[in-house]
Amino acid sequence: MTKVAIVTGGTRGIGEAISLALKEMGCTVAANYAGNEEKARAFTGRTGIEAFRWDVGDHQACLDGCAAVAEKLGPVDIVVNNAGITRDGVLAKMSFDDWNEVMRINLGGCFNMAKATFGGMRERGWGRIVNIGSINGQAGQYGQVNYAAAKSGIHGFTKALAQEGARYGITVNAIAPGYIDTDMVAAVPAQVLEKIVAKIPVGRLGHAQEIARGVAFLCSEDAGFVTGSTLSINGGQHMY
Ligand code: NDP
Description:
Keywords: Oxidoreductase. It holds the Pfam family adh_short_C2. This is Acetoacetyl-CoA reductase. The chain has 240 residues and is α/β, with parallel strands linked by helices. The model has no long low-confidence stretch (mean pLDDT 97). Helix 1 (13-24) links the parallel strand 1 and strand 2. Helix content is 49%, strand content 15%. Strands 3-2-1-4-5-6-7 form a 7-stranded parallel sheet, with helices on both faces.
């Protein structure tokens, strides 16, 4: 499958595993990142996948970044909106900046990336967009009104855009990961994490590769009849 794929936040954590899974599928992959040059350089050294720096929360930067990828690697067929941040805190302590930054990057990034690539997919009659949501967007989470709202928004965005893309051969799906062993989860205090793991029926954190395999399936030809869906990969922690 020689398709060109962009994975936002594709240089580490879940994104790195997704970049690698798409490369293994035969895609030419561009991994986007925000600014951690050291991790991006190490990633390219390990994988041979080129890294492209831009802020997905910046509309113009997404248009320019996607144009640069297309010029270098070819028209973009697949977008995985994986870049995400947390700025946790209970409402009383959450600043407007904490709210706005999470909405701007986590949800705004999906809009910006779709605006930059959807038209081309439509013209060519084929496309795959996979948005990384979260169990906390499905179920809510104490201290995360910003993150839960943005991730919940991603699930709505996915279903709406899926309806627009269907007749043009573009599928739009979401994956809602549970707790996955990455830097983001390493930031959770150990006592809190212990309580979280106790609530996961499978009895452990997930691995980034387990999310990546789901993304790879949704990006494949075999998944052409799957659109507007959310695949929960969470060890049974939240079922509905
Ligand atoms: P990490 O914090 O490990 O990595 C985040 C990646 O996103 C990095 O590559 C980072 O770039 C990039 N990034 C952050 N902000 C921006 C931005 N403004 N523009 C471009 N890239 C950006 O995250 P995870 O791998 O843990 O999470 C990946 C996704 O999965 C996120 O959307 C997260 O919300 C979601 N998720 C994660 C869960 C988990 O348990 N880990 C659970 C549920 C959902 P750089 O390296 O330059 O900083």
